[in-house]
Please model this.
Amino acid sequence: VIEAVDLEKIYDGAGAKTHALRGVTFTIEEGEFAAIMGPSGSGKSTLMHILGCLDVPTTGTYRLAGRDVAELDLHELAEVRRSTVGFVFQAFNLLPRATVMRNVVMPILYTRTDPEERERRAAEALTAVQLDEKLWTHRSNELSGGQMQRVAIARSLVNNPSLILADEPTGNLDTATGDSVMELFARLNDEGRTIVLITHEPDIAARAKRVIRIQDGLISEDAVQADA
Amino acid sequence: VIEAVDLEKIYDGAGAKTHALRGVTFTIEEGEFAAIMGPSGSGKSTLMHILGCLDVPTTGTYRLAGRDVAELDLHELAEVRRSTVGFVFQAFNLLPRATVMRNVVMPILYTRTDPEERERRAAEALTAVQLDEKLWTHRSNELSGGQMQRVAIARSLVNNPSLILADEPTGNLDTATGDSVMELFARLNDEGRTIVLITHEPDIAARAKRVIRIQDGLISEDAVQADA
Ligand SMILES: Nc1ncnc2c1ncn2[C@@H]1O[C@H](COP(=O)(O)OP(=O)(O)OP(=O)(O)O)[C@@H](O)[C@H]1O
Ligand SMILES: Nc1ncnc2c1ncn2[C@@H]1O[C@H](COP(=O)(O)OP(=O)(O)OP(=O)(O)O)[C@@H](O)[C@H]1O
Ligand SMILES: [Mg+2]
Ligand SMILES: [Mg+2]
Model:
């Protein structure tokens, strides 16, 4: 479902030109569970944004579900994201003064889903990440770091995505809560969804079936691993 | 140097009343190296903010270097922070459009240090966290997550603090970079500085000499540990 061919990304700002990806090529089939690892600054989040159609490569081709994303206009890209992708950002990207509930329904707010159905799906996602119900009316800036992270994960699930891209989804979670999040991802993968997650923790990467290592904007290793 | 007596913290917002700390008591001597661990939402960051004089307890007493912080006015609290505390926030709290350099000199910008000395100290701190010099002119929102984390750590060191409070300082770092940050903290501790860090990673906590565990706003364990 994911076909990356020779992806390059150059950020070009004042005093900030960086060759973040230098020719990255790989294919991820539907239903796979892959972990991306690598040093800080090696290009993992940059790659993830391209995979999630949130950014475009400087050169190279990216095909998602057979479609070359370079041929889609902004409207079509937004539609692809809305219907098929769930994205968990490294910095969560929640609306700080909106409530947990409001944040989680955001991706399906302007779809043809009726309000009760939206709230039901948000509640289901929040329950799946084990966020205490009394926190659902807090503003997202009235939560702990790990609670915000779980809200970000719940939000990524509410549009029923076939592709889940999670950037360091357990970075702010204690080991027990992190384990339960990985069990959730395993269940979602069993349902046939494709999961790609970035992590720096070997215990988390061990739960994936394949590890892609990135170094200085290039893939240094791409291997299937035996189940932990 | 840190004396916490029966600290309680109740957040009281609309629909957001939470008893985050329920009576926390402990003492940390000058020069100690302690790790705080506990489940997501258990009160760790809340406690850290009180220790760093960024927040006040609802009830209970907090003495820093012998002074009861409840008796200090806002001006005196700011002065205590500026002269003795280095704080690394869980969400970094950098100024996104300011450069790395600008962000790191912030804590000493209005002190009697001259501009070259400020820049020298910022460069020293950035070198200590191994942030590539060509990144120093990037705006902080033009960095990877782990690079932002290292800028936040560098910023916490530039005022030469005797107390360093770090909230999940390695959460976005690969294992190798995280290890080098822990070696930096060990060196700073050897220089006599007091270090308290929050972490959910056992390998990181193992580098501290004492582990304080928090659960539901109470201390569940407080023990010295043998060196790893
Ligand atoms: N501004 C606020 N208003 C209401 N409740 C809050 C506020 N900030 C934090 N809380 C609540 O206080 C409790 C403790 O939060 P705290 O941030 O101290 O947890 P933590 O141990 O640091 O968690 P984590 O490991 O997830 O970062 C949580 O249940 C949280 O929801
Ligand atoms: N807007 C930007 N402008 C210039 N350079 C950027 C920008 N965003 C990221 N970079 C640079 O691109 C490189 C790759 O960044 P990226 O965020 O993909 O790394 P990463 O592998 O996710 O790192 P981490 O593990 O620290 O999160 C880094 O060196 C970073 O400084
Ligand atoms: Mg990243
Ligand atoms: Mg916290």
